[in-house]
């Protein structure tokens, strides 16, 4: 295995497929139409840290393929931008150092697990990055299985997600949770009631804090240790809860008050 560093490099139509790297570091570089299929990265740093008084140049991967690519655990993504890239059954899990990464018009297939996507970089990095938000739009997750995937300060409706029966993109989460919680109180097992209340309230708090009261919801979000029948019951109730507060929805007029005597 080899270790390589790319600094202010431009690589076009390079085939890395099947290679193994003990270390792969990128700084201020661009990769276009490169193939990383089957590549195994033991160490991977993309968009290496910049110097605060000199800025933090962005590295770009454009129209690249990551098919069955073994990304190193806890890859440092740094100031990196992926445009129209394909992540097909890549080992995209256990990735938390992603707060400066941008993803635009990318396609994700296969299992995506334990990863954070951020629409806003860390406050202390915004000055050196020269931006206060990350582009995250047009990404296609319809062929992906999402497990413990978190979207922070991201416009969820600007992405494509898998749909029913496994997922539903919902708005007004806090309102829906408030409407569904009384259903839980009729369950006979107090442990199930407690688990469901905790999961629903956590879902609502996170949606309000992170994504304008929206969330991509699955039955597992109802409580992973709940019996599947109860998870499905809650998921369906949450999904079907009506509301008169959605934008553009007409509010029915009040009936006229009865005439006084």
Largest sheet: 6 strands, parallel
Query: How would you state the average pLDDT, rounded?
Result: 88
Low-confidence stretches: 243-261
Which of globular, elongated, flat, extended, rod-shaped describes the shape? elongated
Roughly how much helix do the residues carry, as a percent range? 10-25%
Domains (count): 2
- Sequence of strands across the biggest β-sheet: 2-4-7-9-12-14
Radius of gyration: 22 Å
Structural class: alpha/beta
**Sequence of secondary-structure elements:** EEEEEEEEEEEEEHEEEHHEH
**First-residue to last-residue Cα separation:** 92 Å
Q: What proportion strand? A: 25-35%
Question: What is the number of helical segments per DSSP (H or I, 4+ residues)?
Answer: 4
What does this structure look like?
This protein is α/β, with parallel strands linked by helices and 261 residues long. The protein has two domains: 1-162, no CATH class; 166-243. Helices cover 19% and strands 30% of the residues. It is built from four helices and 17 strands. It has helices at 126-129, 173-184, 190-210, 228-240; strands at 2-7, 10-12, 20-27, 30-32, 40-41, 44-45, 59-62, 65-67, 80-83, 86-88, 92-95, 102-104, 107-118, 136-137, 140-152, 168-170, 215-217. The strands form four sheets. Strands 2-4-7-9-12-14 form a six-stranded parallel sheet, with no helix packed on it. Strands 8, 10, 11, 13 and 15 form a five-stranded parallel sheet that branches. Strands 1, 3, 5 and 6 form a four-stranded parallel sheet that branches. Helix 2 (173-184) packs antiparallel against helix 3 and helix 2 crosses helix 4 (228-240). The protein is elongated, with a radius of gyration of 22 Å.
């Amino acid at each position: 295995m080899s270790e390589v560093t790319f600094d202010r490099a431009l690589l076009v139509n390079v085939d890395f497929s099947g290679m193994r790297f003990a270390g792969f570091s990128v700084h201020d570089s661009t990769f276009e139409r490169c193939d990383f299929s089957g590549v195994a990265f033991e160490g991977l740093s993309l968009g290496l840290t910049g110097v605060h008084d000199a800025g933090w140049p962005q590295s770009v991967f454009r129209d690249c393929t990551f098919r069955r690519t073994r990304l190193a655990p806890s890859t440092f993504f740094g100031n990196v931008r992926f445009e129209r890239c394909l992540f097909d059954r890549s080992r995209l899990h256990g990735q938390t150092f992603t707060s400066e990464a941008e993803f635009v018009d990318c396609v994700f297939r296969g299992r995506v697990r334990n990863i954070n996507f951020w629409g806003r970089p860390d406050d202390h990095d915004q000055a050196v990055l020269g931006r206060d938000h990350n582009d995250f739009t047009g990404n296609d997750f319809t062929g992906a299985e999402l497990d413990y995937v978190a979207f922070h300060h991201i416009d969820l409706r600007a992405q494509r997600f898998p749909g029913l029966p496994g997922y539903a993109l919902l708005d007004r989460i806090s309102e829906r949770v408030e409407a569904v919680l009384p259903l839980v109180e009729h369950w006979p097992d107090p442990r199930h009631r407690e688990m469901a209340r905790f999961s629903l309230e956590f879902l609502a708090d996170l949606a309000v804090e992170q994504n304008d009261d929206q969330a991509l919801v699955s039955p597992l979000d109802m409580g992973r240790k709940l019996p599947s029948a109860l998870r499905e019951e809650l998921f369906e109730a949450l999904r079907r809860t009506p509301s008169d507060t959605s934008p553009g929805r007409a509010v029915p007029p009040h009936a006229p008050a009865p005439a006084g005597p």
